[in-house]
Amino acid sequence: MVPHASATSTGRSWIGEVRLLGSFRLIVDGADVALPTGSQRLVALLALHGRQTRSRAAGTLWPDATEVRALGCLRTAIWRCHHGAPGVVQAGSTSLHLSAAVSVDCVELASTARAVIDGGSGDPAGCDGELLSGWDDDWLADERERLNQLQLHMLEAQAQRLAADGRFGLALDAAMRAVRADPLRESAHRTVISIHLAEGNVAQARRALRRCADLLHSELGVGPSAQTMRLMAGALTGSGMGATTGTGRSTAPVKDALRGDAAVTVG
After folding, report:
1. Comparing C-alpha atoms, which of 151, 155, 158, 52 is closest to residue 108?
2. Residue 113 domain-assigned?
3. Domain end position, chosen among 104, 124, 155
4. How many domains are contained in the chain?
């Protein structure tokens, strides 16, 4: 979404952007704006949760302070926002919100992800990165997990669609981005394996399964799920390329193949 231009008290129009994927950035008219930590956290809160009452914002950002102290910190953060980036934070007597002239990368990510997951068009490029990496504020936890799940499902859906169109290189790129984002996510590994099998690369699919099995064993002490094992069973028995929904195919050949590579727990 392209934000509408806003104007400062002097009449100058401007457009802003808040980036929260990775590290915090506030950009106004193409230039980075430096803000103190408290003001960054205020802008991030408003970007993620929208309009807030002053008391709620103060309690969220300074939970260990008394109400009087927290409200004082909030006033300071607002003043510093006005000083560094006039107009970005719109503050009333009881509530505050971001200007409509400010776009937020997380909002754009969520919109793109929902479109891709729902079968529509969208470009996942530039949608990588953890929400405010390095910040440990409690109020970020749920939003961080929500966005992470949207990112992962988007990449898997994009990979599956590209593979169905025969665009295997791009499909693998999307699937590997999902694996890199969450190495223990078995569905991402299954997507990689499926693409290799669809392209007829059984040896590469087997290596991908081995990597998945090794990771699960070393980190969690478990082997791949039956769903993942069934995916490879048809390829190793010569009865087909495997399918994620198959239920009658024996996984014994896959277990034997993995044990032949190394002694790991495979279920």
Report:
1. 151
2. no
3. 104
4. 2
CB atoms within 10 A of CB 255: 19
Helix (H, G, I), strand (E, B) or coil at 216: helix
Q: How far apart are CA 100 and CA 142, in angstroms?
A: 24
The pLDDT assigned to 60 comes to 97
| Pairing label, strands 13-14, 16-19 | unpaired
Residue 74: which CATH number? Answer: 1.10.10.10
CA–CA–CA angle 195, 105, 150 (5° rounding): 40
| Cβ atoms within 10 Å, residue 260 | 8
User: Given this model, what pLDDT does residue 267 score?
Assistant: 47
At residue 6, the pLDDT reads 56
Tell me what percent of the chain is helix, strand and coil, each rounded to the nearest 5.
55, 10, 35
Distance (Å, whole) CA 152 – CA 113: 9
pTM: 0.80
Each residue of 143-173: pLDDT tens digit? 999 999 999 999 999 999 999 999 999 999 9
Q: With a cut of 70, which residues of the chain have pLDDT below it?
A: 1-12, 124-127, 236-267
**Is 112 contained in some domain?**
no
Going across the sheet that includes 102-104, the strands are 31-32, 25-28, 16-19, 102-104
Structure confidence at residue 177 (pLDDT)? 95
Structural domain boundaries enclosing 34: 15-104
Q: What is the dihedral of CA 98, 100, 102, 103, to 10 degrees?
A: 110
Last residue of a domain, one of 49, 75, 104: 104
Q: Is residue 125 part of a domain?
A: no
Among all chains, which residue has been given the structure tokens 């399964």? Answer: 209
